[in-house]
Amino acid sequence: AGAQGLGSGVEMSEQMRKLAAWRLEREGLAERVELHCGDAEQLPFEAESLDGIFFSFTLELFDTPELPNVLAECKRVLRPGGRIVVVAVSREGKHGVMLELYEWTHKHFPNLMDCRPIYVRRALEAAGYEVVRLARTVCCGALDIHHGNRERALELARINVRELASSGADAIISAASGCSAVIAAYGELLK
Question: How far apart are the first and last CA of the chain?
């Protein structure tokens, strides 16, 4: 979002929204991020009001039949020329042990592994998006920040800032409040 930009986050759980708000306040970033409690199928934004939307391991949480609705809602709120950035575990490509492990764990322990690999490119293209794959994006670093691993979070932030800057996006909007808080803190992290 840049030095003067504003980020927004949408969280289904009011408890998680409050936790993210507390963390933003603690980091001195509460003025830079507005947090909403809501549903990705009914985003709390006006039509054509956002420059960008950022999903980091979030689309995998939705049931497959919900994906077209979520992506259509994102398209509704994106300005013409706006971008959607997706970091996801994809079923596309070569299937290996990790994919099988994710799927097995999700099937048998859904509370432990709540996301599962999805057909990301297919879902985006079916919703009318042009898919441009960035060479290297990674997790936003929220878990590392929350566990006190600042150096790892810095490493992830540097990778994402470099890749997202080359994408030409004007803004980054996260669909998860915890990710919004960390992305908003990238400027402070990288000082």
Answer: 16
Q: Name the region of 51 (left: φ>0; alpha: ψ -120 to 50; beta: rest).
A: alpha
Amino acid at 166: S
How long a stretch of residues is the chain? 191
31/38 Cα distance (integer angstroms): 20
pLDDT tens digits for 11-49? 989 999 999 999 999 988 899 999 999 999 999 999 999
Q: How many CB atoms lie within 10 A of CB 136?
A: 9
User: 170 is written with which tokens?
Assistant: 């004007």
For 143-168, write each residue's pLDDT tens digit. 887 788 888 888 888 888 887 777 76
The C-alpha atoms of residue 19 and residue 25 are separated, in whole angstroms, by 10
